[in-house]
Write the structure tokens for this entry.
Amino acid sequence: MDEAARIALIARILAGPARGVELGIGDDAAVLLAPPGVGRLIWTIDEQVEGVHFRRDFASWRDVGWRSFQAAASDVAAMGARPWCALCALVLPDTVDDAALEEITLGQRDAALAVGAPIVGGNLSRGTGFSIATTLLGVCERAVGRSGAKVGDGLWMAGHVGLAACGLRALTTGRGAAAAALPALAAWRRPEALVSSGLAMAESARAAIDVSDGLARDVGHLAQASGVQAVLDPSALLADAALVAAARAIGVDPLDLALYGGEDYALVAAGPAPIAGFRRIGDIREGAGLVLATEEGDIPLLVRGFDHFSR
Amino acid sequence: MDEAARIALIARILAGPARGVELGIGDDAAVLLAPPGVGRLIWTIDEQVEGVHFRRDFASWRDVGWRSFQAAASDVAAMGARPWCALCALVLPDTVDDAALEEITLGQRDAALAVGAPIVGGNLSRGTGFSIATTLLGVCERAVGRSGAKVGDGLWMAGHVGLAACGLRALTTGRGAAAAALPALAAWRRPEALVSSGLAMAESARAAIDVSDGLARDVGHLAQASGVQAVLDPSALLADAALVAAARAIGVDPLDLALYGGEDYALVAAGPAPIAGFRRIGDIREGAGLVLATEEGDIPLLVRGFDHFSR
């Protein structure tokens, strides 16, 4: 199909109600009417690249569309905002045929419905490398950034960490067939932005981040931005039965996965009070950096994790 | 440099005042306060891909950054809106080193300043194909879409058509050294989104589009969306002295360039009254499609131009 036909296909799949959207797919730009009474707009862009964020032999085209959308939505959730609507820009090599484009769009549509943020426009380009850029707008009264954590706050987490990385490891090592690994495969293929948890967190949290590049790296960023030390409790991280079972099934250390595995899109918040749907995984102290509080004492952790440009 | 250092470099270059932006580069998402009294938000995403939208031997890194930003800003201008702020997502292969990234960012920064829309966030990823995705928000009271042209309207144009394509042709044929080709080279390397023209147009225009893929294709889209026929006057298109001189210097037909050459980002509007800064290039009639009104009569034009997926 040519460009116009491809856009028409996408528009058919994505058609549906969109609150506050006066003009959607098919013009130079989308036209929006901000919902009345909205305090703040939250705006993010994320891009998923073949060979970096996904491998085609590990995920269906529909998974690829789903994952790309949820990764962007997670940034909005991490600010304590409600996703509103989205635009998507695809770079499509010849290997992505019309049937694949339809599946990708269906995956995006499913995720957009799950998150409650319709796709109202975008861009198509050919190219040699396949990528999906997703930009989302969200709305909130009060945005929760990374820099507000205070000494004495608890560190609270919703969702899993390490499970998606365990799923990817199961795929790369060919051990994905183990029953205990199935939740890990699903975590990697079908991550979910924790929108409701983000909204719950916004009531009391002083700082928050989503775990896309690994807990150590992302909580390290929160601590650095807030000028505090973050303390992680390993027993709380290992209280995740699904993670421990999946890690055992493929023979890797669950704590290593929990600290350094990315792409689960868990939410971590710092705040003075428990948050519905979150469990405590540590504390905020005076100091800097990140430590693991073990029975033998505190172990400083390197703020490492996924880095696009480190060698 | 690693990812954090690259983001810090970009943040330093892009630092500056940004109206209505509470939180910019460095968090999960940007936080915006819509300017008070704003009617509508205009939202677009555009992506420029190496080997498709630019060749590195034809443009400096700074040109590449500039062009990518202006292409997105032109979509906002074409809706009659004022650009507000932007996010940029870059996919960077190893061939884009730190010095190149700095130049690209400077080009984006220059364009953002020229357009009046600061870059307040983004995303970096490695990948094999180099691309820049730019998403812009704009504001306006009344958005000018593609579908409102009425029979009897004039067709009005601001800016050049064909000049950028002439510049690209000069580069690909090695004839770029001719003095008459210099404005064409500049048009291709340094296009400018016609923001002021777009704002002027919004007063009276009933439909508008920016010419990114060629006049025939883009005006054809406007006619189709509006359910009318667009008539182009070739003598008006050939009244562009810079185009005619450049086309002659490299030995190509200026009318062919004007009709089918893209990437100038001229604005074409349909409306009942002359618009400051626009010249008349045709009319809107009852019917469908696009015709060229010559002395020998009307010649139907194929709505062709740049298509990413046609063979």
In short: The radius of gyration of chain B is 20 Å.
